[in-house]
């Protein structure tokens, strides 16, 4: 497969050949696993109170990609999710909207219509998984058709999965070319999130290499996981990816977002991740244009904690909708 023209940035020359790309990726500093996990754990002990906590909860709500990716998804479920994204708490219109609704390509038009009907466009985006999500086991032309369908239906963002088999076999240029081709298919209509499925990459060194590979190929976001495997987002793998986007911007001037997905369920979890963002990448990433949570159950806990701060009491179990 011929190499597609690389994105224009200061490191574009490292993708000129398979050997140069391999040399660059394997020349990245090795990851000190013990140190990485210790730093992630240490940052996770930070606590915030009152006004800062209220700000963090609202910020986290605004960063949620409200997601349904099930075989049993129906238009009715997607419409309800779209309405919830626009008005997460129907009893309190001061609640921020979520960042996006994430659905399969065949549900993009339904989600778009639901968001518009609820008055949420363009504040709430429609994201769609593509490229034979979640396994990515399909020919490139099939993957690109998947992307074209989603974009044509109105997707603002595409969440693609990399070919983990090719990556683990060391076929880095193949993975790079596929990301570039998907990015080109997104055109100017949709931002691209590149999913690594960190739970299948085995080592932190591989996660670092995948992060740089995705960014070199033009990813707008790098994303931990599909949420469909046993190990998804963790503080350690997210910290590693935040270090990568920080260092990539320092070298190229290009800012790339980060999206941890899967396993983030409580407000306490979300705050820990926001601390990671602030202390590692910096305040420039504390915005939903650059940081997202791939979660649905998380939103319910954020809403209940938000009401607790406002009223001093917890709500009953029927306060939030069950997704």
Using the alpha-carbon principal axes, give the shape. globular
Distance between the termini: 42 Å
The largest beta-sheet arranges its strands as: 7-6-5-4-3-2-1-8
The chain-level mean pLDDT equals 93
Order of helices and strands: HHHEHEHEHEHHEHEHEHEH
Number of helices: 12
Sequence stretches where pLDDT stays below 50 over 5 or more residues: none
How much beta, percentage-wise? 5-15%
Helix-residue proportion? 40-55%
Largest sheet, in brief, is: 8 strands, parallel
* Oligomeric description of these chains: single chain
Label the structural class: alpha/beta
**Radius of gyration using CA atoms only:** 19 Å
Give a count of the beta strands, DSSP E runs of length 2 or more: 8
Describe this structure in words.
- The chain has 323 residues and is an alpha/beta fold.
- It is built from twelve helices and eight strands.
- An eight-stranded parallel β-sheet has the order 7-6-5-4-3-2-1-8.
- Strand 1, helix 4 and strand 2 form a beta-alpha-beta unit.
- Helix 4 crosses helix 5.
- It is globular and about 60 Å long.
- The model has no long low-confidence stretch (mean pLDDT 93).
List keywords for this structure.
about 325 residues, alpha/beta, 8-stranded parallel beta sheet
In brief, what are we looking at here?
The protein is an alpha/beta fold. It has helices spanning 18-26, 33-43, 50-62, 75-86, 108-117, 140-152, 164-168, 172-186, 204-216, 235-252, 267-280, 297-311; strands at 64-67, 100-103, 125-130, 157-161, 191-195, 221-223, 257-259, 293-294. The radius of gyration is 19 Å and the shape is globular.
């Amino acid at each position: 497969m011929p190499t597609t023209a690389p994105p224009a940035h200061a490191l574009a020359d490292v993708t000129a050949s398979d050997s140069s790309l391999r040399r660059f990726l394997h020349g990245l500093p090795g990851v000190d696993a013990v140190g990485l996990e210790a730093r992630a754990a240490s940052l996770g002990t930070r606590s915030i109170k009152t006004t800062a906590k209220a700000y963090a909860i609202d910020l986290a709500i605004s960063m949620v990609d409200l997601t349904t990716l099930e075989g049993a998804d129906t238009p009715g479920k997607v419409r309800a999710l779209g309405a919830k994204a626009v008005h997460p708490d129907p009893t309190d219109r001061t609640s921020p909207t979520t960042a996006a609704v994430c659905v399969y390509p065949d549900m993009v038009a339904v989600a778009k219509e639901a968001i518009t009907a609820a008055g949420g466009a363009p504040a709430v985006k429609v994201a769609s998984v593509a490229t034979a999500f979640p396994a990515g086991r399909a020919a490139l032309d099939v993957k690109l058709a998947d992307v074209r369908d989603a974009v044509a239906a109105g997707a603002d963002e595409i969440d693609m999965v990399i070919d983990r088999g090719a990556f683990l076999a060391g076929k880095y240029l193949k993975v790079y070319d596929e990301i570039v081709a998907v990015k080109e298919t997104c055109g100017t209509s949709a931002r691209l999130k590149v999913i690594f499925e960190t739970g299948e990459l085995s080592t932190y060194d591989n996660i670092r290499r995948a992060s740089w590979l995705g960014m070199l190929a033009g990813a707008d976001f790098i994303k931990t996981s599909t949420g469909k495997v046993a190990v998804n987002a963790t503080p350690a793998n997210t910290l590693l990816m935040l270090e990568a986007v920080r260092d990539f911007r320092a070298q190229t001037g290009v800012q790339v977002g980060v999206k941890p997905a899967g396993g983030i369920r409580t407000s306490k979890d979300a705050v820990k991740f926001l601390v990671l963002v602030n202390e590692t990448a910096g305040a420039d990433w504390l915005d939903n244009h650059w940081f997202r949570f791939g979660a649905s159950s998380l939103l319910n806990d954020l809403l209940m904690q938000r009401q607790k701060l406002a009223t001093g009491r917890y709500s009953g179990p029927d306060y939030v909708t069950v997704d």
